[in-house]
């Protein structure tokens, strides 16, 4: 199966054994989503229905697509959890921006802030909630699509 977007070959062949398994699985999911879209694309929404549906998801989409949020979410997923300074230094963010983003993520139930006993002190550790993990897994095909498309489809 070749991964294509709008008839354009993106240079990824899922039959190649050298590709990571996760890329193959995500590519298959993307193909299935395209198939579902084609099967159900005859459903038309009224302008008001469309406005209502978009209004429901807009706040979450704005959060998830804001600068640094995908980086924070993936760092927490891959690490299993990190302290504030670990995140700050790993991602190269300012304290203020990181603090604001973490507060938003905690408020929205994607990240939990825990106190962890350390050597002689209590530390704060951030980790993904189960909902946060689901969101990261859901974002993965989106981000892979951007990666596979390269810079061609994403001009500044």
Automatic annotation (TrEMBL):
Q: Which keywords label this protein?
A: DNA-binding, Transcription, Transcription regulation
Q: Which GO terms describe its molecular function?
A: DNA binding
* Domain of life according to the entry: Archaea
Concerning InterPro entries, the annotation shows: HTH_HxlR, WH-like_DNA-bd_sf, WH_DNA-bd_sf
HTH hxlR-type domain residues = 55-154
Q: List the protein's name.
A: HxlR family transcriptional regulator
User: From what organism does this protein derive?
Assistant: Ignicoccus islandicus DSM 13165
């Amino acid at each position: 199966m070749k991964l294509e977007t709008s008839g354009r070959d993106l240079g990824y062949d899922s039959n190649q054994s050298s590709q990571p398994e996760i890329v193959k699985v995500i590519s298959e999911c993307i193909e299935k989503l395209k198939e579902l879209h084609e099967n159900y694309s005859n459903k038309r929404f009224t302008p008001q229905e469309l406005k209502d549906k978009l209004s429901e998801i807009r706040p979450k989409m704005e959060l998830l697509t804001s600068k640094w949020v995908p980086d924070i979410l993936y760092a927490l997923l891959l690490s299993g959890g990190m302290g504030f300074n670990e995140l700050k230094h790993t991602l190269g963010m300012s304290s203020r921006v990181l603090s604001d983003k973490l507060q938003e993520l905690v408020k929205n139930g994607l990240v939990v802030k825990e106190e962890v006993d350390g050597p002689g002190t209590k530390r704060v550790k951030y980790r993904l909630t189960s909902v946060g993990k689901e969101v990261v897994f859901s974002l993965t095909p989106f981000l892979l699509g951007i990666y596979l498309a390269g810079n061609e489809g994403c001009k500044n």
